[in-house]
Specification:
9 helices, about 25% helix, 13 strands, alpha/beta, 5-stranded mixed β-sheet, disordered C terminus
Length: about 375
Amino acid sequence: MASAVEIDAMRRALQLARRGPRGLNPQVGAVVLSPAGDILAEGFHRGAGTAHAEVDALSQLTPGAARGATAVVTLEPCNHTGRTGPCAQALIDAGVARVVYALDDPTDAAAGGADRLRGSGVDVESGPEAVAAAELVGDWVALQRTGRPHVTVKWAQSLDGRAAAADGTSQWITGPAARRDVHARRAQADAIVAGTGTVRADDPALTARTEDGSLLETQPIPVIIGESETAPDAAVRRHPREPLFYATHDLPAVLADLAEQGVQRVFVEGGPTLASAFVRGGLADELLVYVAPVLLGGSRLAVGDVGVSTIDEARRLAVASIENLGDDLLIVARPAPTQDAAPPHASTEPSGAHDEIAPAEPARATARAHEGDA
């Protein structure tokens, strides 16, 4: 059983892991303890192609200084040679006597490090702070399982399900508390997605901001989907992150390309047409619906065709939470477990029904892909 010192070291390793970037590789932290329980070195993974957390920590020690030490790591040491060598072997070569890790590696390529360590006589224990570790790398784990980022689809609507009034105006359906919530959720995403129709009609900035309009420190990558051109002076082109443009209707291809670039969490906020396309394609892992106590009537529905022609085809959802945000409600829902769906954060811009996304012939995504590091 892990000692109190080792558990404290694991909590420190989790803090270190959060310093690393989200991307192609998981966020991992490591702490090396002396036989007496003193911290000898700390490390974390700084992104694809850089030293993994264990090697980062060992690199701070002189040869032989880790002999008999305990390595505390948030994820099972890898058993894989990619851009870097296997961390399990690095720990063995350093003479580490014990390894404590929180979470098993979920990938076929990198798993097996614990067995390799045990086979070399290293004492291994897993499980301390596993819940916190799983929460930290949950999006990365899901990406390994499904091959695409986690997708959150958001819309704001009136009580009668409208995204805009009859003349197309929609600013603001929801109140300040709901808009603050959406900006906080944007900042938690790796990418924010809109269609070219909405960008052309509403000119959204697609940034995460404070109530006074200041930019938050963390910004999602703006992703624009659709075959229409975006104006050179569009607000999104002034985004602090370089926008990605996809001239395609093929949403799975877009998500696959984003995954290759290390995007783990996508926030879809592009209007009813785009939202409907993600739902229709079975690509929405989570729905955020901000409901304002107002009636608008008319035909501008918050959601369009989601591929349901009869009640038996209804897309059943499980409500995860309902929250009061000022006068508005936030409903968080996910596909019900029995729903036959593909594997798997209110508006601050007008919720325009302008996105040019519809079922179409698959097309190749145009953004560049980056090489990964398992």
